[in-house]
Design a protein that fits this description.
Largest interface: A-B, 23 and 20 residues
Strand content of chain A: 15-25%
Distance between the termini of chain B: 60 Å
Order of helices and strands of chain A: HHEEEHHHHE
Number of strands of chain B: 17
Oligomer: heterodimer
Radius of gyration of chain A: 14 Å
Number of helices of chain B: 14
Number of domains of chain B: 2
Number of strands of chain A: 4
Structural class of chain A: alpha+beta
Number of helices of chain A: 6
CATH topology of chain A: Sufe protein. Chain: A
CATH topology of the largest domain in chain B: Aspartate Aminotransferase, domain 2
CATH class of chain A: Alpha Beta
Helix content of chain B: 25-40%
Largest sheet of chain A: 4 strands, mixed
Strand order of the largest sheet of chain B: 4-10-9-8-7-5-6
Strand order of the largest sheet of chain A: 3-2-1-4
Largest sheet of chain B: 7 strands, mixed
Shape of chain A: globular
Chain lengths: ~150, ~425
């Protein structure tokens, strides 16, 4: 496989695509948003349970490509248990990572597994795939619109 | 509409499929398209996104350049040499388009920005004039958004109703449902000739004859038929026919609205401005005659002239030869794609052009598109501006291969081979 393509479809991404974590609508949640990418028809529903400023639970449902599905899966895995502010900070960092604005290695390594999405920055057409679940999560945390679209 | 006449001739949909490709030299044709010899990610380009736009032959590229080098001027106003030359070239194209689709008069050829603008023009003028509260417009389930939204906008404005001809699992119109949709409130049928996402060739002649038997005018969206089929608007007898130049190997930003002269004549202007007037005073403006009434402002002169050259090019090869060659490609593609594992074609109409929409079970079209791109293959992925079609088949998107006159069987083989890379990544 071409190196650039390998950077995009890393093993972690393929694994989360195949077996997404935190998939399915939970019984209890107090924040929700629906994300939709009109360009490709991908959509993701994000359900969050916030208690005392902590993301107690976060799950997702929807259909999308390998990049968006694995992004949602990794996002939910990493955000769970974090403070709302921490989740929002991660949103900012993730956004900068996939749009190629983040090159501080220390910050990237702090992001743990999310760093696998760095390859997306070389695929402008795919940035929205990776960022859709994050935009949806942010919207859910703020309970803004119920249906949002991703802008890189 | 009292000027719509029923046609008592037998309907045959004017589909005579020609199979003779003798003298068709695809190698020579490929030489005429410079971009086909570029590489993408280090691989020779295989361009399979022709339903989105087609590439331009060298003749069109050179003509465009030559126009700016030797002719550039505004049209219809100047007395000077260059303006006259530009006007002549521009108007010669109108005549070329007339001949290409066999319209009766050059007055029936209106240049627009594309098929989308042509439909909007009809909705804004003919539509506003003839469609009122409670009236009905019939479209189909396989329309491009450009033949849905303008009618919805009109319906919202006028409190009119948009009705939809359903499609079956093959992506064919359910023609038996059409008579039941037509009522005495039906004011227009606006129908796509060939579906951009399914490849289906619709029986437009049958639809036109049925509509005419009830006095209903018909608009045919020819965006995906003009480059694949011989179009004869007089034989079709449609009231309107629209297409875009860039899907016909011409430049972007130029399209055509064909309309029957008496109907165009009865319609109010679309936009106001220069060129569309005969005389202007602050008290009153007298509109120009056809076709200028609908061409306000300086038009896309170079685009029009480029389109003329594209039509010359297609005519020199022969649209029937192109259709026959593409039919061979279509049959070859269908045969080669079918055995691909997990391959599910979307759009399996009996009568179709060389457009293959498909999904691979468990693999999203976007991922297929990215991986094939690294093999040099350009395909389209997504909903193709036909979201109702996606919903009909209960899928978010498809991958689409759409072939043109310069594609080859070898490229199809390469595609089939390259699909293995997709399975390698998602093993």
């Amino acid at each position: 496989m071409d190196n650039e393509l390998k950077e995009l479809y890393q093993q972690v991404i393929l694994d989360h695509n195949k077996s997404p974590r935190n998939y399915g609508k939970p019984e209890n949640y107090n924040h929700f948003a629906e994300g939709y990418n009109p360009l490709c028809g991908d959509h993701v529903d994000v359900y969050i349970k916030v208690e005392n400023g902590i993301v107690e639970d976060v799950r997702f449902e929807g259909s999308g490509c390998a990049i968006s599905k694995s992004s949602a899966s990794l996002m939910t895995s990493i955000v769970k248990g974090k403070k709302v502010e921490e989740a929002e900070k991660l949103f900012d960092n993730f956004h900068d990572l996939v749009t190629g604005k983040l090159d501080d290695e220390a910050v990237i390594s702090e992001m743990g597994k999310l760093a696998v999405f760095q390859g997306v920055r070389d695929f402008p057409a795919r940035v929205k795939c990776a960022s859709l679940p994050w935009h949806t999560m942010k919207s859910a945390l703020h309970d803004e619109a119920t249906k949002i679209t991703s802008e890189p | 509409m009292n000027n719509i006449k029923a046609n008592n001739n037998k309907t045959d949909n004017l589909r005579t499929v020609i199979t003779d490709t003798s003298g068709y030299d695809v190698k020579r044709i490929r030489k005429d398209f410079p971009i086909l010899h570029t590489t993408v990610h280090g691989k020779p380009l295989v361009y399979f996104d022709n339903a989105a736009t087609t590439h331009k032959p060298l003749a069109v590229i050179e003509k465009t350049r030559k126009y700016y080098e030797e002719t550039n001027s505004n049209i219809h106003r100047g007395v000077h040499f260059l303006s006259q030359k530009a006007t002549n070239e521009y108007e010669e194209v109108r005549e070329k388009v007339r001949g290409f689709i066999n319209a009766k008069s050059h007055k029936e050829i209106i240049f627009t920005r594309g098929a989308t603008e042509a439909i909007n023009l009809v909705a804004s003028t003919f539509g506003r004039m003839n469609i009122g509260e409670g009236d009905e417009i019939i479209i189909s389930h396989m329309e491009h958004h450009s033949n849905i939204v303008p009618w919805q906008m009109l319906a919202e404005e006028k409190n009119a109703i948009v009705k939809v001809i359903p499609i079956n699992d093959h992506g064919e119109l359910e023609m038996d449902k059409l008579p039941g949709l037509i009522t005495d409130r039906t004011k227009l049928v606006s129908i796509v000739h060939v579906s951009n996402s399914l490849g289906t060739v619709n029986p437009v002649k049958e639809i036109i004859d049925l509509a005419h038997s009830k006095g209903i005018p018909v608009l045919v969206d020819g965006s995906q038929s003009i480059q694949h089929l011989k179009i004869d608007v007089r034989a079709l007898d449609c009231e309107f026919f629209v297409f875009s130049g860039h899907k016909l190997y011409g430049p972007t930003g130029i399209g055509v609205l064909y309309g029957k002269e008496d109907i165009l004549d009865s319609m109010p202007p679309y936009q106001g401005g220069g060129d569309m007037i005969a005389a202007v005073s602050f008290e009153r403006t007298i509109y120009n005659e056809l076709p200028f009434k609908f061409e306000a402002g300086t038009p896309n002169i170079v685009g029009t002239i480029g389109l003329g050259t594209a039509i010359d090019y297609i005519t020199s090869v022969g649209i029937e030869k192109i259709a026959a060659y593409e039919k061979q490609l279509c049959d070859y593609g269908a045969e080669k794609f079918a055995p691909i594992p997990k391959f599910r074609p979307i759009g399996t109409a009996k009568d179709k052009v060389s457009v293959f929409s498909f999904i691979l079970a468990g693999i999203h079209p976007h991922d297929i598109g990215t991986i094939l791109d690294f093999e040099g293959i350009a395909i389209r992925t997504g909903h193709h501006c036909t979201q109702p079609v996606m919903k009909r088949f209960n899928i978010p998107a498809t991958a689409r291969v759409s072939l043109a006159m310069y594609n080859t069987k070898e490229e199809i083989d390469h595609f089939v081979h390259a699909i293995n890379k997709v399975f390698e990544v998602f093993s």
